[in-house]
Design goal:
five-stranded parallel β-sheet; 17 helices; five-stranded mixed β-sheet; alpha/beta; 377 residues
């Protein structure tokens, strides 16, 4: 922390980097925390480097994994890289201003390494004792799970990435998730041993929801940034439907609030304006990730149903009231078939009492929200 504070308090415009391995066709909402941090540091005048792990993606990071990643071939890596870079180009400023982000692929330099030269020049600078003591490695070994030599070398390659960027681009800061900490430390140590200079890592915790779940994970799977994998409609409703206790945290992390707006979020959990802020959160993040999304159309697909809170209603009755089922019998058939979800969870109880601000979905596009009487949607 002291070294990081010293860097940021120096007044120097710093170069920092964050990397993404193309192990899937899309980044997911968990990556948004890094992307928004890049945006905020860039606004402050610092210079981002975005690394696409064309080389490291071939190996797969073993950190915090209970088993070895499935190997993917070069064709898939190339396709994934193209899709991820296309999305990053929409989310990060690579063109405008005095400090546009720089996009690099670590395959450019890692593919040129001679193995014998690498062992001779860098092997003595890595401590196997320290590497074995890292949680990411130690946990696998303690559980007697297979850790391949291929995976073990990932730490060396990421450390070399940091050294390469330090020497060629004056990059002094690496940003990554908490699961990258061991790799970041290895890079910092390598830079110190090789150059005698100081570099630092900025670790971000893996973001969880108030109930302890991993952010971006739902019963239906991951919430992706690629609209072909997660539609803007479902993306917006993911944020619209976050738990009340997560709204303030997500607003501060993923939006840029004015001082007045930030003040208004104090005591938000007990406020009757919670729905206003949920919609604001969903609007801002959806517009950021999907600039072409028609928010009015998305909201028009969600029907607000007034419910008198003095008369609790059962699920089977609400479906009929909302014209989602013709009768109670039809309601039961929908529920028995697993076609009805309440706040994203498949419903099984016909008699479940529906509360205010509950989201009920039938199929993929029929969605209603139960509102307080006379509350506009």
């Amino acid at each position: 922390p002291k070294a990081l504070d010293k860097f940021f308090c120096s007044g120097e415009k710093l170069v920092f980097y964050v990397g993404f391995d193309p192990t899937a066709k899309s980044l997911h909402v968990g990556h948004l925390l890094w992307i928004k941090l890049v945006e905020k540091l860039q606004r402050a005048g610092h210079k981002p480097i975005i690394i696409c792990g064309g080389a490291t993606g071939k190996i797969g990071d073993p950190t915090w994994k209970s088993k070895q990643r499935v190997m993917i071939n070069e064709k898939i890596i190339s396709e994934n890289t193209e899709l991820i870079l296309e999305k990053l180009g929409q989310l990060i400023n690579f063109k405008i201003g005095g400090n546009p982000a720089r996009l690099l692929n670590n395959y450019t330099w890692l593919s040129k390494l001679n193995y014998l030269d690498f062992l001779r020049d860098f092997g003595p600078l890595f401590s196997v004792n320290k590497m074995l003591a890292m949680d990411s490695v130690c946990n696998r070994l303690e559980m007697q799970q297979h850790l391949s030599f291929l995976e073990f070398n990932y730490m060396l390659l990421q450390a070399y990435d940091f050294l390469h960027l330090f020497e060629h681009y004056d990059c002094k800061i690496q940003i990554g998730g908490a699961d990258q900490w061991a790799n970041m430390i290895s890079g910092i140590d390598l830079i110190r041993r090789k150059t005698g200079e100081q570099a630092v890592g900025l670790s971000l915790p893996l973001l969880t929801t108030s109930n302890g779940g991993k952010m971006g994970k739902t019963n239906e799977g991951t919430i992706w940034l690629n609209q072909n994998l997660t539609s803007p409609f479902n993306f917006w409703h993911y944020w619209r439907n976050v738990d009340d206790h997560d709204v303030v945290k997500f607003l501060k992390l993923f939006t840029i609030l004015s001082p007045a707006e930030a003040d208004e979020t104090i005591g938000l959990i007990s406020s009757d304006k919670i729905n206003k802020w949920k919609i604001l959160l969903a609007d801002k993040i959806t517009t950021f990730v999907h600039p072409g999304a028609d928010l009015d159309e998305i909201k028009s697909m969600t029907l607000g149903i007034d419910l008198n809170l003095d008369t609790p209603m059962q699920l089977e009755d609400v479906l009929v009231l909302a014209n989602l089922a013709e009768s109670k019998t039809a309601s039961k058939r929908l529920i028995d078939g697993g076609g009805v979800k309440i706040d994203g969870i498949t419903a099984t109880n016909y008699k479940q009492i529906i509360k205010c601000d509950t989201l009920i979905s039938v199929g993929k596009k029929k969605l209603i929200r139960i509102c307080k009487k006379q509350e506009p949607f």
